[in-house]
Amino acid sequence: MSEQIEQPLQYISKLFDEHLTNQSCTEFDPSSSFLPLLKDYKNQIISLNEVPVQQVPKNTLVRFRCMIQDTGLGQEMFISAYEKLDPNGNSKLTCYRYTDDPIEAELNTMQNEHLNERSLVYCISPPGENNWAKEAHNVNSDPLIDGINNLEIKAPNQISAKKFPLPNRDHTCSIVKFYNDMAESVKVGQLIEVIGIRGQDMTQQQNDETELDSALDLFSDIPVLHAIAFNNLNAINSYPSLGNVTHQTPQIRAQLIDYISSVLCNDTLVAEFVLLQLLSRVTVKNRGLKIGNFTLNISGFPAHQTTEQDKKTPLLTLYNPASKAFSDVLDTLNVHTVQIPLTIDGLNNTKFTPKSINENLEAGILQLVDGTVVLVDETVLEEGQLVDAGVRNFQALNDVILNQTLTYEFPYSQYQFDTDLNVISLSTSKSMLPNHCSIHLSMNNSNENRVQPSNETLDTFRQFIHSAKYSSYDIPEQVSEYIQTRFVNERKAATESKTELPTQEELMLRMNLARLAAVSFGETSLSAERYDYVINLDKQRRARMAEQSSN
Protein backbone atom coordinates (compact mmCIF):
# COMPACT_ATOMS: atom_id res chain seq x y z
CA MET A 1 0.00 0.00 0.00
CA SER A 2 2.90 2.38 0.63
CA GLU A 3 3.79 2.52 -3.07
CA GLN A 4 0.19 3.33 -4.01
CA ILE A 5 0.17 6.25 -1.58
CA GLU A 6 3.75 7.50 -1.89
CA GLN A 7 4.39 6.87 -5.60
CA PRO A 8 0.95 6.63 -7.22
CA LEU A 9 2.04 7.28 -10.82
CA GLN A 10 4.73 4.62 -10.60
CA TYR A 11 2.19 2.16 -9.22
CA ILE A 12 -0.30 3.05 -11.97
CA SER A 13 2.44 2.45 -14.54
CA LYS A 14 2.95 -1.08 -13.16
CA LEU A 15 -0.79 -1.77 -13.28
CA PHE A 16 -0.81 -0.50 -16.87
CA ASP A 17 1.99 -2.88 -17.88
CA GLU A 18 0.11 -5.80 -16.32
CA HIS A 19 -3.09 -4.71 -18.04
CA LEU A 20 -1.46 -4.71 -21.49
CA THR A 21 -0.62 -8.42 -21.26
CA ASN A 22 -4.15 -9.35 -22.26
CA GLN A 23 -6.17 -6.16 -22.85
CA SER A 24 -5.97 -2.94 -24.87
CA CYS A 25 -4.85 0.33 -23.31
CA THR A 26 -8.26 1.94 -23.92
CA GLU A 27 -9.84 -0.36 -21.30
CA PHE A 28 -7.35 0.49 -18.55
CA ASP A 29 -9.03 1.49 -15.27
CA PRO A 30 -7.05 1.40 -11.99
CA SER A 31 -9.97 2.57 -9.84
CA SER A 32 -10.53 -0.82 -8.18
CA SER A 33 -6.96 -0.76 -6.87
CA PHE A 34 -7.28 2.71 -5.33
CA LEU A 35 -10.87 2.90 -4.08
CA PRO A 36 -10.24 0.58 -1.09
CA LEU A 37 -7.66 3.08 0.17
CA LEU A 38 -10.50 5.46 1.08
CA LYS A 39 -11.80 2.82 3.46
CA ASP A 40 -8.71 1.18 4.93
CA TYR A 41 -5.92 3.76 4.60
CA LYS A 42 -7.88 6.99 4.36
CA ASN A 43 -5.99 8.90 7.02
CA GLN A 44 -2.64 8.22 5.36
CA ILE A 45 -3.79 10.19 2.30
CA ILE A 46 -3.53 13.98 2.33
CA SER A 47 -6.97 15.62 2.34
CA LEU A 48 -7.48 18.82 0.38
CA ASN A 49 -10.20 19.66 2.92
CA GLU A 50 -7.53 19.96 5.62
CA VAL A 51 -4.33 20.93 3.82
CA PRO A 52 -4.11 24.05 1.62
CA VAL A 53 -3.84 22.66 -1.88
CA GLN A 54 -1.01 25.08 -2.66
CA GLN A 55 1.07 23.19 -0.10
CA VAL A 56 0.58 19.83 -1.83
CA PRO A 57 3.30 18.84 -4.35
CA LYS A 58 2.30 17.91 -7.87
CA ASN A 59 1.72 14.17 -8.52
CA THR A 60 0.81 13.53 -4.86
CA LEU A 61 -2.03 11.14 -4.10
CA VAL A 62 -4.80 13.13 -2.40
CA ARG A 63 -8.44 12.88 -1.44
CA PHE A 64 -11.06 15.58 -1.67
CA ARG A 65 -14.51 15.59 -0.04
CA CYS A 66 -16.49 17.88 -2.30
CA MET A 67 -19.76 18.93 -3.85
CA ILE A 68 -20.20 18.91 -7.62
CA GLN A 69 -20.81 22.58 -8.44
CA ASP A 70 -20.54 22.76 -12.24
CA THR A 71 -20.51 19.91 -14.76
CA GLY A 72 -20.50 22.27 -17.73
CA LEU A 73 -16.76 22.78 -18.26
CA GLY A 74 -16.77 20.27 -21.12
CA GLN A 75 -14.16 17.73 -22.13
CA GLU A 76 -10.56 17.86 -23.29
CA MET A 77 -8.54 15.58 -25.48
CA PHE A 78 -5.48 13.98 -23.96
CA ILE A 79 -2.87 11.39 -24.83
CA SER A 80 -3.54 8.30 -22.74
CA ALA A 81 -0.34 6.44 -23.76
CA TYR A 82 2.72 6.86 -25.96
CA GLU A 83 5.66 4.82 -27.24
CA LYS A 84 8.92 5.23 -25.32
CA LEU A 85 12.29 3.50 -25.69
CA ASP A 86 13.37 1.46 -22.69
CA PRO A 87 17.06 1.24 -21.57
CA ASN A 88 17.60 -1.65 -24.02
CA GLY A 89 16.37 0.40 -26.96
CA ASN A 90 13.06 -1.44 -27.23
CA SER A 91 9.84 0.45 -27.79
CA LYS A 92 7.45 0.32 -24.86
CA LEU A 93 3.93 1.69 -24.49
CA THR A 94 3.91 4.09 -21.52
CA CYS A 95 0.83 5.17 -19.54
CA TYR A 96 0.17 8.92 -19.67
CA ARG A 97 -2.99 9.22 -17.60
CA TYR A 98 -3.52 11.15 -14.35
CA THR A 99 -0.61 13.53 -14.94
CA ASP A 100 0.30 16.83 -16.58
CA ASP A 101 4.05 16.15 -16.74
CA PRO A 102 5.76 16.76 -20.10
CA ILE A 103 6.04 13.69 -22.31
CA GLU A 104 9.54 12.21 -22.11
CA ALA A 105 9.80 11.36 -25.81
CA GLU A 106 9.32 12.83 -29.27
CA LEU A 107 5.94 11.93 -30.68
CA ASN A 108 6.51 11.12 -34.34
CA THR A 109 3.35 9.09 -34.72
CA MET A 110 0.24 8.79 -32.63
CA GLN A 111 -2.35 6.05 -32.90
CA ASN A 112 -5.99 7.08 -32.56
CA GLU A 113 -6.53 4.52 -29.84
CA HIS A 114 -4.05 6.43 -27.67
CA LEU A 115 -6.13 9.60 -27.85
CA ASN A 116 -8.96 9.92 -25.37
CA GLU A 117 -11.26 12.40 -23.67
CA ARG A 118 -11.61 13.34 -20.03
CA SER A 119 -14.37 15.44 -18.46
CA LEU A 120 -13.69 18.61 -16.50
CA VAL A 121 -15.92 19.21 -13.46
CA TYR A 122 -15.75 22.08 -10.97
CA CYS A 123 -15.89 20.87 -7.36
CA ILE A 124 -15.97 22.72 -4.04
CA SER A 125 -15.62 21.79 -0.39
CA PRO A 126 -19.12 21.06 1.00
CA PRO A 127 -20.95 24.33 1.75
CA GLY A 128 -22.31 24.56 5.27
CA GLU A 129 -20.22 21.69 6.64
CA ASN A 130 -19.90 22.18 10.39
CA ASN A 131 -16.58 22.14 12.25
CA TRP A 132 -17.35 18.99 14.24
CA ALA A 133 -17.96 17.10 10.99
CA LYS A 134 -14.69 18.36 9.48
CA GLU A 135 -12.82 17.20 12.57
CA ALA A 136 -14.57 13.82 12.49
CA HIS A 137 -13.44 13.29 8.89
CA ASN A 138 -9.86 13.97 9.98
CA VAL A 139 -9.58 11.57 12.93
CA ASN A 140 -6.11 9.99 13.39
CA SER A 141 -4.67 12.08 10.59
CA ASP A 142 -1.09 11.88 9.43
CA PRO A 143 1.39 14.11 11.36
CA LEU A 144 2.28 15.85 8.09
CA ILE A 145 -1.30 17.00 7.82
CA ASP A 146 -1.47 18.10 11.44
CA GLY A 147 1.55 20.31 10.91
CA ILE A 148 0.00 22.45 8.20
CA ASN A 149 -3.77 22.07 8.48
CA ASN A 150 -4.12 25.32 10.41
CA LEU A 151 -3.04 27.40 7.44
CA GLU A 152 -5.83 29.35 5.80
CA ILE A 153 -7.66 27.73 2.91
CA LYS A 154 -9.02 30.38 0.59
CA ALA A 155 -10.53 30.58 -2.85
CA PRO A 156 -7.82 31.64 -5.35
CA ASN A 157 -9.75 34.33 -7.24
CA GLN A 158 -13.03 36.19 -7.64
CA ILE A 159 -14.30 33.77 -10.26
CA SER A 160 -14.05 30.84 -7.87
CA ALA A 161 -15.51 32.95 -5.04
CA LYS A 162 -18.67 33.37 -7.13
CA LYS A 163 -18.87 29.63 -7.64
CA PHE A 164 -19.20 28.96 -3.91
CA PRO A 165 -22.81 29.20 -2.63
CA LEU A 166 -22.03 30.97 0.65
CA PRO A 167 -20.62 34.49 0.08
CA ASN A 168 -17.32 35.45 1.69
CA ARG A 169 -16.67 31.99 3.12
CA ASP A 170 -13.23 30.40 2.84
CA HIS A 171 -13.30 27.12 0.97
CA THR A 172 -11.36 24.75 -1.24
CA CYS A 173 -12.05 24.32 -4.93
CA SER A 174 -10.64 22.18 -7.70
CA ILE A 175 -11.21 21.32 -11.32
CA VAL A 176 -11.51 17.55 -11.19
CA LYS A 177 -10.65 15.64 -14.35
CA PHE A 178 -12.74 12.47 -14.61
CA TYR A 179 -11.60 9.51 -16.73
CA ASN A 180 -13.37 6.45 -18.15
CA ASP A 181 -16.83 8.03 -18.34
CA MET A 182 -16.89 8.53 -14.54
CA ALA A 183 -18.41 11.99 -15.03
CA GLU A 184 -21.56 10.43 -16.45
CA SER A 185 -22.45 9.18 -12.96
CA VAL A 186 -22.14 12.53 -11.14
CA LYS A 187 -24.57 15.44 -11.04
CA VAL A 188 -24.63 18.98 -9.68
CA GLY A 189 -25.14 19.16 -5.93
CA GLN A 190 -23.84 15.64 -5.38
CA LEU A 191 -21.51 15.01 -2.43
CA ILE A 192 -18.57 12.76 -3.26
CA GLU A 193 -15.09 11.91 -2.03
CA VAL A 194 -12.49 11.73 -4.79
CA ILE A 195 -9.16 9.94 -4.64
CA GLY A 196 -6.75 11.12 -7.27
CA ILE A 197 -3.50 12.84 -8.15
CA ARG A 198 -2.72 16.51 -7.69
CA GLY A 199 -2.05 18.04 -11.11
CA GLN A 200 -0.83 21.39 -12.37
CA ASP A 201 -2.99 24.46 -11.83
CA MET A 202 -5.01 25.58 -14.83
CA THR A 203 -2.85 28.62 -15.67
CA GLN A 204 0.31 26.53 -15.66
CA GLN A 205 -1.24 24.06 -18.08
CA GLN A 206 -2.34 26.78 -20.44
CA ASN A 207 1.09 28.44 -20.43
CA ASP A 208 2.85 25.12 -20.95
CA GLU A 209 0.66 23.99 -23.82
CA THR A 210 -1.04 26.76 -25.75
CA GLU A 211 -3.01 29.92 -25.31
CA LEU A 212 -6.61 28.85 -24.88
CA ASP A 213 -9.49 31.10 -25.82
CA SER A 214 -12.32 29.48 -23.93
CA ALA A 215 -14.33 29.60 -20.73
CA LEU A 216 -11.44 27.79 -19.02
CA ASP A 217 -9.38 30.97 -19.29
CA LEU A 218 -11.43 32.23 -16.32
CA PHE A 219 -9.99 29.64 -13.97
CA SER A 220 -6.50 30.98 -13.45
CA ASP A 221 -4.60 29.28 -10.61
CA ILE A 222 -7.43 26.82 -9.94
CA PRO A 223 -5.96 23.51 -8.66
CA VAL A 224 -6.43 20.40 -10.78
CA LEU A 225 -7.17 16.93 -9.45
CA HIS A 226 -6.95 13.86 -11.70
CA ALA A 227 -9.66 11.55 -10.35
CA ILE A 228 -8.83 7.86 -10.18
CA ALA A 229 -11.99 6.89 -8.31
CA PHE A 230 -14.67 8.36 -6.06
CA ASN A 231 -17.23 7.39 -3.44
CA ASN A 232 -20.76 8.75 -3.36
CA LEU A 233 -21.30 10.43 0.03
CA ASN A 234 -24.98 11.32 -0.40
CA ALA A 235 -27.65 10.15 2.04
CA ILE A 236 -26.50 7.75 4.76
CA ASN A 237 -22.87 7.96 3.60
CA SER A 238 -22.62 11.71 4.31
CA TYR A 239 -21.95 11.07 8.01
CA PRO A 240 -18.24 10.68 8.94
CA SER A 241 -18.72 7.47 10.94
CA LEU A 242 -21.76 5.71 12.31
CA GLY A 243 -22.11 3.55 15.41
CA ASN A 244 -25.00 1.47 16.66
CA VAL A 245 -27.10 3.53 19.08
CA THR A 246 -30.47 1.81 18.61
CA HIS A 247 -30.32 0.12 22.02
CA GLN A 248 -30.37 3.57 23.64
CA THR A 249 -33.16 5.06 21.50
CA PRO A 250 -35.77 6.02 24.17
CA GLN A 251 -33.12 7.56 26.43
CA ILE A 252 -31.40 9.43 23.58
CA ARG A 253 -34.70 10.70 22.22
CA ALA A 254 -35.73 12.20 25.56
CA GLN A 255 -32.32 13.79 26.14
CA LEU A 256 -32.27 15.20 22.62
CA ILE A 257 -35.68 16.85 23.02
CA ASP A 258 -34.49 18.38 26.31
CA TYR A 259 -31.38 19.71 24.56
CA ILE A 260 -33.33 21.28 21.70
CA SER A 261 -36.00 22.70 24.01
CA SER A 262 -33.38 24.39 26.20
CA VAL A 263 -33.01 27.11 23.51
CA LEU A 264 -36.76 27.16 22.81
CA CYS A 265 -38.00 28.38 26.20
CA ASN A 266 -38.09 24.75 27.35
CA ASP A 267 -41.03 24.10 25.01
CA THR A 268 -40.80 20.33 24.57
CA LEU A 269 -43.72 20.18 22.11
CA VAL A 270 -41.93 22.50 19.68
CA ALA A 271 -38.66 20.65 20.29
CA GLU A 272 -40.32 17.35 19.36
CA PHE A 273 -41.56 18.80 16.08
CA VAL A 274 -38.04 20.10 15.41
CA LEU A 275 -36.66 16.60 16.00
CA LEU A 276 -39.18 15.13 13.54
CA GLN A 277 -38.18 17.78 11.01
CA LEU A 278 -34.49 16.88 11.33
CA LEU A 279 -35.36 13.24 10.57
CA SER A 280 -37.31 14.10 7.42
CA ARG A 281 -36.11 13.62 3.84
CA VAL A 282 -37.53 12.99 0.40
CA THR A 283 -38.35 9.29 0.38
CA VAL A 284 -40.34 9.04 -2.87
CA LYS A 285 -40.04 10.84 -6.21
CA ASN A 286 -42.87 10.19 -8.63
CA ARG A 287 -43.33 12.31 -11.76
CA GLY A 288 -42.13 15.45 -10.06
CA LEU A 289 -44.01 14.76 -6.80
CA LYS A 290 -41.80 14.55 -3.71
CA ILE A 291 -42.97 12.69 -0.62
CA GLY A 292 -41.37 12.57 2.81
CA ASN A 293 -39.89 16.03 3.22
CA PHE A 294 -41.31 18.12 6.04
CA THR A 295 -40.98 21.91 6.29
CA LEU A 296 -41.62 23.38 9.74
CA ASN A 297 -42.43 26.93 10.77
CA ILE A 298 -42.02 28.06 14.39
CA SER A 299 -44.13 31.15 14.98
CA GLY A 300 -44.17 33.33 18.09
CA PHE A 301 -40.38 33.53 17.98
CA PRO A 302 -38.85 36.52 19.84
CA ALA A 303 -38.60 39.58 17.61
CA HIS A 304 -35.41 41.55 17.12
CA GLN A 305 -35.09 45.23 16.24
CA THR A 306 -32.36 45.56 13.64
CA THR A 307 -29.57 47.98 14.59
CA GLU A 308 -26.98 49.76 12.46
CA GLN A 309 -24.37 47.32 13.79
CA ASP A 310 -26.54 44.39 12.70
CA LYS A 311 -26.55 45.76 9.15
CA LYS A 312 -22.77 45.55 9.07
CA THR A 313 -22.69 41.83 9.83
CA PRO A 314 -21.66 39.49 6.98
CA LEU A 315 -24.33 37.97 4.77
CA LEU A 316 -25.94 34.77 6.04
CA THR A 317 -25.13 35.68 9.66
CA LEU A 318 -27.97 35.57 12.19
CA TYR A 319 -28.08 38.55 14.52
CA ASN A 320 -31.30 37.87 16.41
CA PRO A 321 -29.85 36.35 19.65
CA ALA A 322 -32.77 33.92 20.03
CA SER A 323 -32.41 32.71 16.43
CA LYS A 324 -28.64 32.43 16.85
CA ALA A 325 -28.98 30.28 19.97
CA PHE A 326 -31.34 27.89 18.15
CA SER A 327 -29.04 27.86 15.12
CA ASP A 328 -26.04 26.96 17.29
CA VAL A 329 -27.87 23.87 18.52
CA LEU A 330 -28.73 22.83 14.98
CA ASP A 331 -25.07 23.25 14.02
CA THR A 332 -24.02 20.79 16.73
CA LEU A 333 -26.48 18.14 15.53
CA ASN A 334 -26.25 18.20 11.72
CA VAL A 335 -23.43 17.68 9.25
CA HIS A 336 -24.46 20.60 7.02
CA THR A 337 -26.39 23.72 8.07
CA VAL A 338 -26.97 27.11 6.44
CA GLN A 339 -28.62 30.18 7.94
CA ILE A 340 -30.58 32.73 5.89
CA PRO A 341 -31.64 35.93 7.67
CA LEU A 342 -34.57 37.00 5.50
CA THR A 343 -33.99 40.72 5.03
CA ILE A 344 -35.01 43.02 2.19
CA ASP A 345 -31.37 43.81 1.49
CA GLY A 346 -30.42 40.13 1.49
CA LEU A 347 -33.26 39.20 -0.86
CA ASN A 348 -32.43 42.04 -3.26
CA ASN A 349 -28.65 41.65 -3.31
CA THR A 350 -27.94 37.96 -2.82
CA LYS A 351 -28.11 35.28 -5.48
CA PHE A 352 -30.32 32.37 -4.35
CA THR A 353 -30.16 30.30 -7.56
CA PRO A 354 -27.24 29.31 -9.82
CA LYS A 355 -26.88 31.33 -13.01
CA SER A 356 -24.55 30.88 -15.98
CA ILE A 357 -22.71 34.09 -16.86
CA ASN A 358 -20.22 34.03 -19.76
CA GLU A 359 -20.32 30.21 -19.79
CA ASN A 360 -19.49 30.13 -16.08
CA LEU A 361 -22.08 28.74 -13.66
CA GLU A 362 -22.10 31.06 -10.64
CA ALA A 363 -23.57 29.51 -7.50
CA GLY A 364 -26.67 30.55 -5.55
CA ILE A 365 -27.00 30.12 -1.80
CA LEU A 366 -29.56 27.34 -2.29
CA GLN A 367 -27.15 25.19 -4.33
CA LEU A 368 -26.45 22.89 -1.39
CA VAL A 369 -25.80 19.28 -0.49
CA ASP A 370 -28.87 17.09 0.05
CA GLY A 371 -29.76 16.87 3.73
CA THR A 372 -28.57 20.40 4.53
CA VAL A 373 -30.66 22.04 7.26
CA VAL A 374 -31.62 25.54 6.09
CA LEU A 375 -32.74 27.86 8.88
CA VAL A 376 -34.67 30.87 7.53
CA ASP A 377 -35.03 33.72 10.03
CA GLU A 378 -38.06 35.88 9.23
CA THR A 379 -37.87 37.72 12.55
CA VAL A 380 -35.49 40.30 11.05
CA LEU A 381 -37.66 41.10 8.03
CA GLU A 382 -38.62 44.78 7.96
CA GLU A 383 -40.64 46.93 5.58
CA GLY A 384 -39.06 47.69 2.23
CA GLN A 385 -39.33 47.29 -1.52
CA LEU A 386 -38.38 44.05 -3.24
CA VAL A 387 -36.76 44.56 -6.63
CA ASP A 388 -37.00 41.97 -9.42
CA ALA A 389 -34.03 39.97 -8.06
CA GLY A 390 -35.62 39.91 -4.60
CA VAL A 391 -38.91 38.60 -5.98
CA ARG A 392 -37.06 35.88 -7.90
CA ASN A 393 -35.11 34.87 -4.80
CA PHE A 394 -38.26 34.68 -2.70
CA GLN A 395 -39.88 32.51 -5.37
CA ALA A 396 -36.81 30.25 -5.47
CA LEU A 397 -37.09 29.69 -1.72
CA ASN A 398 -40.79 28.89 -2.17
CA ASP A 399 -39.96 26.37 -4.92
CA VAL A 400 -37.51 24.55 -2.69
CA ILE A 401 -40.06 24.38 0.13
CA LEU A 402 -43.04 23.36 -2.00
CA ASN A 403 -41.43 21.25 -4.71
CA GLN A 404 -37.87 20.51 -3.59
CA THR A 405 -36.58 21.87 -6.90
CA LEU A 406 -33.99 24.55 -7.68
CA THR A 407 -33.86 26.39 -10.99
CA TYR A 408 -30.52 26.74 -12.79
CA GLU A 409 -30.53 29.66 -15.19
CA PHE A 410 -28.65 29.52 -18.51
CA PRO A 411 -28.57 32.11 -21.32
CA TYR A 412 -31.36 30.55 -23.40
CA SER A 413 -32.96 28.08 -21.04
CA GLN A 414 -33.73 27.13 -17.46
CA TYR A 415 -33.45 23.71 -15.87
CA GLN A 416 -34.90 22.46 -12.60
CA PHE A 417 -32.82 20.13 -10.46
CA ASP A 418 -34.13 18.07 -7.56
CA THR A 419 -33.12 19.07 -4.04
CA ASP A 420 -33.63 17.54 -0.60
CA LEU A 421 -33.18 20.36 1.90
CA ASN A 422 -34.57 20.51 5.44
CA VAL A 423 -36.13 23.96 5.80
CA ILE A 424 -37.10 25.43 9.18
CA SER A 425 -38.44 28.97 9.31
CA LEU A 426 -38.70 31.24 12.36
CA SER A 427 -41.29 34.01 12.51
CA THR A 428 -42.79 36.31 15.12
CA SER A 429 -46.30 35.98 13.65
CA LYS A 430 -47.69 34.08 10.68
CA SER A 431 -44.94 33.00 8.31
CA MET A 432 -44.63 34.53 4.85
CA LEU A 433 -43.31 31.21 3.56
CA PRO A 434 -45.25 28.02 2.80
CA ASN A 435 -44.78 25.09 5.17
CA HIS A 436 -46.20 21.67 5.93
CA CYS A 437 -47.13 22.78 9.42
CA SER A 438 -46.63 25.66 11.81
CA ILE A 439 -46.34 25.49 15.57
CA HIS A 440 -46.45 28.40 18.00
CA LEU A 441 -43.65 28.77 20.52
CA SER A 442 -44.73 29.03 24.15
CA MET A 443 -42.85 31.85 25.86
CA ASN A 444 -43.84 30.84 29.40
CA ASN A 445 -40.28 29.94 30.32
CA SER A 446 -36.84 31.46 29.66
CA ASN A 447 -33.74 30.05 27.99
CA GLU A 448 -31.59 30.51 31.07
CA ASN A 449 -31.16 26.78 31.78
CA ARG A 450 -29.52 25.86 28.50
CA VAL A 451 -28.35 22.24 28.34
CA GLN A 452 -24.66 21.73 27.51
CA PRO A 453 -24.13 18.06 26.57
CA SER A 454 -20.68 16.50 26.55
CA ASN A 455 -18.94 15.85 23.24
CA GLU A 456 -19.65 12.15 23.67
CA THR A 457 -23.38 12.83 24.18
CA LEU A 458 -23.46 15.17 21.18
CA ASP A 459 -21.87 12.48 19.03
CA THR A 460 -24.55 10.04 20.19
CA PHE A 461 -27.25 12.59 19.28
CA ARG A 462 -25.76 13.00 15.79
CA GLN A 463 -25.54 9.28 15.16
CA PHE A 464 -29.11 8.85 16.41
CA ILE A 465 -30.46 11.54 14.03
CA HIS A 466 -28.53 10.32 11.02
CA SER A 467 -29.31 6.64 11.55
CA ALA A 468 -33.02 7.29 12.12
CA LYS A 469 -33.24 9.60 9.12
CA TYR A 470 -32.12 6.89 6.72
CA SER A 471 -33.59 3.84 8.44
CA SER A 472 -35.98 1.49 6.68
CA TYR A 473 -39.71 1.79 7.31
CA ASP A 474 -42.97 0.16 6.26
CA ILE A 475 -46.68 0.31 7.05
CA PRO A 476 -48.31 -3.09 7.73
CA GLU A 477 -51.55 -3.69 5.87
CA GLN A 478 -53.62 -3.88 9.05
CA VAL A 479 -52.26 -0.50 10.22
CA SER A 480 -53.04 1.02 6.83
CA GLU A 481 -56.62 -0.19 7.18
CA TYR A 482 -56.76 1.21 10.72
CA ILE A 483 -55.65 4.65 9.48
CA GLN A 484 -58.24 4.68 6.69
CA THR A 485 -61.04 3.61 9.01
CA ARG A 486 -60.09 6.21 11.59
CA PHE A 487 -59.97 8.96 8.95
CA VAL A 488 -63.41 8.00 7.61
CA ASN A 489 -64.84 7.98 11.13
CA GLU A 490 -63.35 11.40 11.86
CA ARG A 491 -65.01 12.83 8.75
CA LYS A 492 -68.35 11.27 9.73
CA ALA A 493 -68.09 12.72 13.23
CA ALA A 494 -67.21 16.14 11.83
CA THR A 495 -70.20 16.01 9.49
CA GLU A 496 -72.55 15.13 12.33
CA SER A 497 -71.18 17.86 14.60
CA LYS A 498 -71.06 20.33 11.70
CA THR A 499 -67.40 21.08 12.34
CA GLU A 500 -64.62 21.40 9.79
CA LEU A 501 -63.87 18.17 7.95
CA PRO A 502 -60.34 16.77 8.17
CA THR A 503 -58.74 17.11 4.73
CA GLN A 504 -56.62 14.85 2.58
CA GLU A 505 -53.69 17.19 3.22
CA GLU A 506 -54.11 16.68 6.98
CA LEU A 507 -54.07 12.93 6.47
CA MET A 508 -50.88 13.17 4.40
CA LEU A 509 -49.26 15.29 7.11
CA ARG A 510 -50.19 12.80 9.81
CA MET A 511 -48.87 9.92 7.73
CA ASN A 512 -45.57 11.71 7.29
CA LEU A 513 -45.36 12.63 10.97
CA ALA A 514 -46.19 9.03 11.87
CA ARG A 515 -43.22 7.78 9.83
CA LEU A 516 -40.92 10.32 11.46
CA ALA A 517 -42.20 9.55 14.95
CA ALA A 518 -41.81 5.81 14.42
CA VAL A 519 -38.18 6.05 13.30
CA SER A 520 -37.49 8.48 16.17
CA PHE A 521 -38.53 5.70 18.56
CA GLY A 522 -36.32 3.21 16.74
CA GLU A 523 -39.27 1.43 15.09
CA THR A 524 -39.04 0.12 11.52
CA SER A 525 -42.78 -0.31 10.98
CA LEU A 526 -45.77 1.81 11.92
CA SER A 527 -48.15 0.66 14.65
CA ALA A 528 -51.66 1.85 15.44
CA GLU A 529 -50.39 3.08 18.82
CA ARG A 530 -47.71 5.22 17.18
CA TYR A 531 -50.24 6.69 14.75
CA ASP A 532 -52.49 7.60 17.68
CA TYR A 533 -49.47 9.18 19.37
CA VAL A 534 -48.95 11.43 16.33
CA ILE A 535 -52.62 12.42 16.19
CA ASN A 536 -52.34 13.52 19.82
CA LEU A 537 -49.21 15.56 18.99
CA ASP A 538 -50.97 17.21 16.07
CA LYS A 539 -54.04 18.00 18.19
CA GLN A 540 -51.84 19.72 20.76
CA ARG A 541 -50.23 21.75 17.99
CA ARG A 542 -53.58 22.71 16.48
CA ALA A 543 -55.04 23.66 19.84
CA ARG A 544 -52.11 25.94 20.50
CA MET A 545 -52.43 27.56 17.06
CA ALA A 546 -56.17 28.03 17.53
CA GLU A 547 -55.62 29.63 20.94
CA GLN A 548 -53.10 32.00 19.45
CA SER A 549 -55.45 32.98 16.62
CA SER A 550 -58.22 33.81 19.07
CA ASN A 551 -55.99 36.16 21.11
TrEMBL record:
Keywords: Nucleus
GO CC aspect terms: nucleus
Entry's Gene Ontology molecular function annotations: chromatin binding
Pfam families linked: MCM_bind (PF09739)
Coiled-coil segments on the chain, per record: none
Subcellular location: Nucleus
Signal sequence coordinates: none
Keyword Nucleus among UniProt keywords: yes
GO BP, sorted A to Z: DNA-templated DNA replication
Name of this protein: Mini-chromosome maintenance complex-binding protein
Source organism per UniProt: Thamnidium elegans
